[in-house]
């Protein structure tokens, strides 16, 4: 078997080699720098798996225990590395099981390429065994998708798939390959895709808009930055930091923007949104200039749009034209890549400081500390809080871990209290809110950055949605640390029932299995903690382990997450209790 | 920005790929907006397709829909226009029993007044083709209905704009960079 370099050398000489479609798919993956993929075999994708067997020294395939797990693992990998994650599945149910991961990647702008097998071309539309219209099904949840029915299409389409997944605002791409196209032979020549004529992924920032933005920033009295994942996806962390430090503007983050700026940075004022920090929410409606960078004004961030930042001028730095004026009208939209835009903006800005204005954030923080944070992090009651668990994880990992969360109370608490000192460290399902995301995503994250500590913090509900991936962890000896914050409830729904549905706890009480025994059944070291005095020691022991480790923490059963903006309320009406 | 509902014609220039129609119709489905009429054809540029979509909604929604359509990878450019900014037509075919031509002299007047064309005549039926605005076709339908229409079909709106739609420029820019 020739090496990839030889293949691409041949390609350059235009002396194409004749190989099968299935082998061509492997060569395409290798040419795109892929060395790790997640998936699950089945009938219609078997020719590709046969090639994976032959190429296993170059391309490591991780067998997840469900196709959904493969997509989330690919997402976790993509989010920590910035590279494209790859998942493979068979036709029919294999393909439909990818849908949740695709939707999650679509709404959280995560670059993944999913390859599905499909029944042979002559059986398309015949309701053949394991046939499903995955192109039709996946259309609303993919950035792009395509069905390959002839082997000769493979190189060009695969190149396009990787280009589109990564270019501009990233997203998921699904390539469906009929079985005949995997068996057929083609003349293989691979060329990377450099552009698609109908797609302009990186609009050039407009100088006039940048000048208008700079003028507003230079003259603002109460300017305020909210940044999102666009900063991370655009590798603009350094530019963001420089912007903040040069102008002295307080900066808050959306849940997906978390870790783009060190949590301990003096001008980092915290999280916006439904369970964000008090000051960042309330002061959104008191700033005179709101500078949004790589964020999309999601409803969980803005609350009621009719009362959102109406007093402020708004500058919106955004790469996706469809996001401009979608939810919040921008006075100055700056279309373009975050890094490129900020680099052009920085020389136009005056050095400045806004101490008095920053003081308002500090004052609000004090209020929040007294009403919420103190009790979360230094509780005096008997039951353990989720917050104190996160505090111990911060301590044990020196704020250096990748922390992967699922969806619900534990997610909000983790994002509020986790400390990060480097980017691409907070991996969570933000837009879609996919329970079951964390465990498989943590597998992908750990495999993406093996040298880093990866801690998955999960609720007892979401954990049981993809718990089968413990087998993947065991089989691959993936040293993720799994922390289940067990409150024996679907905590966030229970909280809403308590606050808005007169305490009618419909189907939110969980009768759980013995989680320690389950983990041990998968040969994973496991412990359970329910007393405060044991917590620090066990967390330290978990982090010190170089193997996978499961820790159940039995936390207070009926705690609520505050602050909270009730659904549909204004950011000004955020409640501290 | 006007908030009342109006008629807008959305013109989409795109690559001619299977599945794009699905992608575009999904955008309307997701926002629960009805497509009043849809036409897909080739455009003035080789290998570039043109979708002509008519919606009745607010300008704000139309702008957002156009943004989402343009976001699709294989869409080159999308525009929206009001009726006043376009020249537009629809076509219709009426299949009518042939004996009515002789039994109902009024039918001949309707044909003449409507400026429609007889496309074919057989012993059993004849077919009228009418091109025009929607209300003209509706009027003709109303006039013929009392005599019995065997089959009726009307096409989606097709339209050209008074202003330029610089697709060739956009494509040339791509090839130059």
Question: What's the short story on this structure?
Answer:
Chain A has about 575 residues and is an alpha/beta fold. Chain A has a six-stranded parallel β-sheet with strand order 3-2-4-5-7-6, with helices on both faces. Chain A has a six-stranded parallel β-sheet with strand order 11-10-9-12-13-14, sandwiched between helices.
Observed structural traits:
heterodimer; A: alpha/beta; Rossmann fold; 3 domains; six-stranded parallel beta sheet; 24 helices; B: 177 residues; Alpha-Beta Plaits; 2 domains; five-stranded antiparallel beta sheet; four-stranded antiparallel beta sheet; elongated
Tell me the overall shape of chain A.
Answer: globular
The general outline of chain B is elongated
Residue runs with pLDDT of under 50 for 5 or more positions of chain A: none
**Within the CATH hierarchy, at the fold level, what is the topology of the largest domain in chain B?**
Alpha-Beta Plaits
Summing up helix and strand content along with how strands pair, one would put the structural category of chain B as alpha+beta
Q: Report the helical percentage of chain A.
A: 25-40%
Q: What would you note in describing this structure?
A:
The complex is a heterodimer of chains A (577) and B (177). Chain A is of the alpha/beta class. Chain A has three domains: 4-188, Rossmann fold, CATH 3.40.50; 207-361, TPP-binding domain (Rossmann fold); 382-554, Rossmann fold (3-Layer(aba) Sandwich). In chain A, the strands form four sheets. A six-stranded parallel beta sheet of chain A has the order 3-2-4-5-7-6, sandwiched between helices. Chain A has a six-stranded parallel beta sheet with strand order 11-10-9-12-13-14, with helices on both faces. Chain A has a six-stranded parallel beta sheet with strand order 16-15-17-18-20-19, with helices on both faces. In chain A, helix 2 (21-31) crosses helix 3 (46-54). The longest helix of chain A has 23 residues, at 355-377. The two termini of chain B are 36 Å apart. In chain B, strand 6 and strand 7 form a beta hairpin. Chain B folds into two domains: 6-86 and 158-169, Alpha-Beta Plaits, CATH 3.30.70.260; 88-154, 2-Layer Sandwich (Alpha-Beta Plaits), CATH 3.30.70.1150. In chain B, strands 5, 6, 7, 8 and 9 form a five-stranded antiparallel beta sheet that branches. Chain B has helices spanning 20-30, 59-71, 99-103, 105-114, 134-144, 167-176, and strands at 6-15, 37-42, 48-57, 75-82, 86-97, 117-121, 125-132, 151-154, 158-161. Helices cover 34% and strands 38% of the residues of chain B. Chain B is α+β, with helices and mostly antiparallel strands and 177 residues long. The chains are: A alpha/beta (577), B alpha+beta (177). The interface between A and B is medium-sized, with 22 and 22 residues.
């Amino acid at each position: 078997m020739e090496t990839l370099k030889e293949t691409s050398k041949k390609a350059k000489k235009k002396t194409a080699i004749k190989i099968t479609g299935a082998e061509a798919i492997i060569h395409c993956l290798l040419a795109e720098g892929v060395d790790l993929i997640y998936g699950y075999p089945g009938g219609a994708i078997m020719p590709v798996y046969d090639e994976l067997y032959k190429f296993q020294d170059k391309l490591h395939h991780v067998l997840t225990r469900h196709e959904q797990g493969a997509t989330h693992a690919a997402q976790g990998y993509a989010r920590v590395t910035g590279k494209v994650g790859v998942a493979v599945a068979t036709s029919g149910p294999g393909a439909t099981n990818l849908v949740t991961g695709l939707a999650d990647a679509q709404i959280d702008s995560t670059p993944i390429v999913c390859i599905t097998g499909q029944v042979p071309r002559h059986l398309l539309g015949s309701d053949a065994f394991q046939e499903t219209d995955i192109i039709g099904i996946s259309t609303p949840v993919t950035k792009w998708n395509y069905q390959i029915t002839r082997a000769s299409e493979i190189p060009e389409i695969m190149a396009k798939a990787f280009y589109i997944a990564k270019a501009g605002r990233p997203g998921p791409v699904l390539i469906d390959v009929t079985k005949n196209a995997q068996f057929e032979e083609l003349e293989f020549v691979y060329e990377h895709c450099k552009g698609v004529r109908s797609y302009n992924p990186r609009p050039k920032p407009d100088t006039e808009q940048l000048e208008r933005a700079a003028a507003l920033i230079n003259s603002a009295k109460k300017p305020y930055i909210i940044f999102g994942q666009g900063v991370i996806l655009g590798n603009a962390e350094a530019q963001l930091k420089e912007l903040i430090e040069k102008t002295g503007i307080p900066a808050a983050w959306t849940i997906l923007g978390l870790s783009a700026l060190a949590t301990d940075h003096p001008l980092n004022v915290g999280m916006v949104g439904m369970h964000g920090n008090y000051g960042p929410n309330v002061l959104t409606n008191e700033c005179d200039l709101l500078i949004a960078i790589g964020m999309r004004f999601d409803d969980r961030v803005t609350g009621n749009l009719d009362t959102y930042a109406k007093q402020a001028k708004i500058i919106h730095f955004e790469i996706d034209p469809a996001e401009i004026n979608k939810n919040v009208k921008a006075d100055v939209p700056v279309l373009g890549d975050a890094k490129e835009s900020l680099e052009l903006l920085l020389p136009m800005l005056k050095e400045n400081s806004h101490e008095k204005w920053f003081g308002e954030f500090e004052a609000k923080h004090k209020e929040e500390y007294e009403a919420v944070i103190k009790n979360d992090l230094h509780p005096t009651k008997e039951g353990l809080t989720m917050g104190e668990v996160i505090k111990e994880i911060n301590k044990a990992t020196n704020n250096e871990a990748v922390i992967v969360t699922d969806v619900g109370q534990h997610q909000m608490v983790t994002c509020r209290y986790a400390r990060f000192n480097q980017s691409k460290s907070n991996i969570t399902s933000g837009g879609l809110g996919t329970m079951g995301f964390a465990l498989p995503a943590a597998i992908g994250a750990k495999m993406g950055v093996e040298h880093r500590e990866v801690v998955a913090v999960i609720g007892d509900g979401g954990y049981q949605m993809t718990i089968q991936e413990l087998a993947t962890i065991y089989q691959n000896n993936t040293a993720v640390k799994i922390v289940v914050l067990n409150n024996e409830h679907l905590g966030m729904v229970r909280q809403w029932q308590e606050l808005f549905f007169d305490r009618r706890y419909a189907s939110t009480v969980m009768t759980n299995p013995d989680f320690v025994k389950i983990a041990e059944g998968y040969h994973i070291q496991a412990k359970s903690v329910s007393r405060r005095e044991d917590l620090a020691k066990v967390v330290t022991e978990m982090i010190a382990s170089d193997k996978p480790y499961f820790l159940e923490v039995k936390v207070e059963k009926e705690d609520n997450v505050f602050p909270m903006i009730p659904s549909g309320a204004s950011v000004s009406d955020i409640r501290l209790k | 920005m006007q908030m009342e509902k109006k008629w807008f014609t959305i013109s989409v220039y795109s690559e001619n790929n299977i599945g794009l129609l699905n992608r575009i119709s999904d955008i309307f489905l997701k926002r629960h907006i009805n497509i009043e009429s849809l036409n897909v054809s080739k455009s003035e540029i080789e290998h570039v397709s043109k979708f002509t979509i008519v919606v009745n909604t607010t300008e704000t929604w139309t702008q957002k829909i156009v943004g989402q359509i343009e976001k699709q990878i294989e869409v080159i450019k999308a525009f929206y226009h009001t009726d006043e900014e376009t020249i537009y037509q629809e076509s219709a075919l009426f299949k009518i029993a042939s004996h009515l031509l002789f039994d109902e002299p009024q039918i001949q007047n309707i044909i003449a007044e409507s400026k429609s064309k007889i496309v074919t005549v057989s012993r059993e039926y004849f077919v009228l083709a009418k091109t025009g605005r929607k209300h003209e076709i509706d009027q003709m339908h109303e006039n013929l209905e009392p005599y019995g229409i065997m089959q009726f079909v009307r096409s989606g709106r097709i339209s050209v704009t008074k202003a330029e739609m610089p697709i060739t420029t956009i494509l040339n820019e791509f090839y130059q960079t």
